[in-house]
Amino acid sequence: MSKLANDDPATDLHAVPAAGPAPLVRPASVALVGFGTVGQAVARILCESPHPELRLHAVCNRQIEKKKVDWVPDEVKWSDRLDDALAPDVDIVVELMGGLEPAGWLIRRALESGRSVVTANKQLVAYHGGELAEIAARCGQHLRFEAAVGAGIPLVRAIEDGLAGDRLFTIAGILNGTCNFILTRMEESGTPFDVALAEAQQLGIAEADPAEDIDGSDARAKLAILASVAFGCHPRPQEIDCRSIARVENTDFRYASRLHSTIRQVAWARRDRESGRLAAAVRPMLVSSRSALARVEGSDNLLTVEGEFGGLTGFLGKGAGGAATAVAVVSDLLSIVRGVPARHSIRASQIPADCSVSGDFTAPQYIRFNVDDRPGIIAAIATAFSKYDISIDAILQEPGYQRTRLPFVVTLDSCRTSVVEAALQDVEALDFNVQRPLHLPILVSNVR
Ligand SMILES: NC(=O)c1ccc[n+]([C@@H]2O[C@H](COP(=O)([O-])OP(=O)(O)OC[C@H]3O[C@@H](n4cnc5c(N)ncnc54)[C@H](OP(=O)(O)O)[C@@H]3O)[C@@H](O)[C@H]2O)c1
Prior knowledge:
Layout: E1 28-33, H1 37-48, E2 54-60, E3 77-79, E4 92-95, H2 103-112, E5 116-119, H3 122-138, E6 143-144, H4 146-150, H5 155-162, E7 168-174, H6 177-189, H7 193-202, H8 211-214, H9 217-231, E8 241-242, H10 250-258, E9 261-271, E10 278-288, E11 300-307, E12 311-318, H11 322-337, E13 357-358, E14 362-371, H12 377-387, E15 392-396, E16 406-416, H13 417-428, E17 433-443
Parallel strand pairs: 1-2, 1-4, 2-3, 4-5, 5-6, 8-10, 10-13, 10-17
Antiparallel strand pairs: 7-9, 7-11, 9-10, 11-12, 14-16, 14-17, 15-16
NADP nicotinamide-adenine-dinucleotide phosphate binds at residues 34-39, 61-63, 96-98, 102, 120-122, 147-148, 151, 320-322, 325.
């Protein structure tokens, strides 16, 4: 029986929702597992703000003695045993440890023992969300994960509810605040990549180990979840093409600006209306200076969603940070106790078996070369591209660089990214290159 069900139907003041447990008629008892950046911010809200429907019951974390703070009321139980989050008097478990395990174990146990779960764990939801949502549905519980995607921006609910009437086909966004901070610093002040990264770390915007942000796997997990919520097609995250921003240099911003563009780490997915096939990628791309993506500053995030009937809709806000993420977690808790029906939109059984995803899409392309200058380079590059039926659109060269390490840019007419990459393998082998060319697709609204 559901932990949240009212024992006496005669006194149940609320209608039972279509899915998930009935709303509570007493404050829901919440166990918080993981008392780090987000966990502490959630505890602050639960301890300080007037949400009478919620009561912080327990805080669980390893080495709990080191975690105790004096602003949590005395009646809250502190524990370093995860099992204590599954005590009989706990209604909802909030998982904020991160990582695949033991977070996955805890969530399965919580759902199977009749508790709803709120989590901010993007990797776990991206890799195992379908299975976990299946368990939640089977056990009549909620699995909420709003904070896992947009942190402070309520994207899941906006898509599941606010845009339910549309048929969505494209999502494009800036889903990693660390990358956006670094790229906007490089753009604004010519700060080198390594310096901008160090600044992000000093400001607490980047982790000590920023690999998941920089290489795109953080945004990729979010994109995988969004694709399933928006398109009902849950791609395996590891199948989404994902490229690092680490090879972007200040020179690229100079060239991008000549093309009336800038560079952003873009998470992009499109569901083909006819075939149902999904193309998705997370990679640095050129975006028009006039686009909403270009105007996202610092660590903010933006998601744009395109639907067949409603056109383009955008969502902007804080994509990271303890307080903003905690608001999403507490909002999920409130929606559970208020009886908002669970959607389970990422249930494995509702997702078509064939959810193959391709990283290949058609777009104009930007290639930056660094060469040891000599006659015949452009002719050699043009010949290599023409073998793949790729047409050069423009060649740009800024003055003021050494001839032994000369950067210049070639833009290509719209073509498939896979074909450009094949051609680049030939071009890279030419001996005038002093560095591997950087290839960035140019995001235009009609990217296919
Ligand atoms: N921070 C953000 O802006 C943000 C935004 C959106 C989503 N999220 C997600 O929210 C979750 C938490 O992130 P966070 O930034 O709060 O991380 P964090 O600061 O590292 O906090 C994690 C907490 O969980 C504890 N913990 C980790 N593994 C544990 C285990 N096996 N047993 C018991 N306790 C364990 C850690 O203890 P120790 O202190 O001993 O390591 C730490 O207190 C992650 O899934 C993250 O992806 C974070």
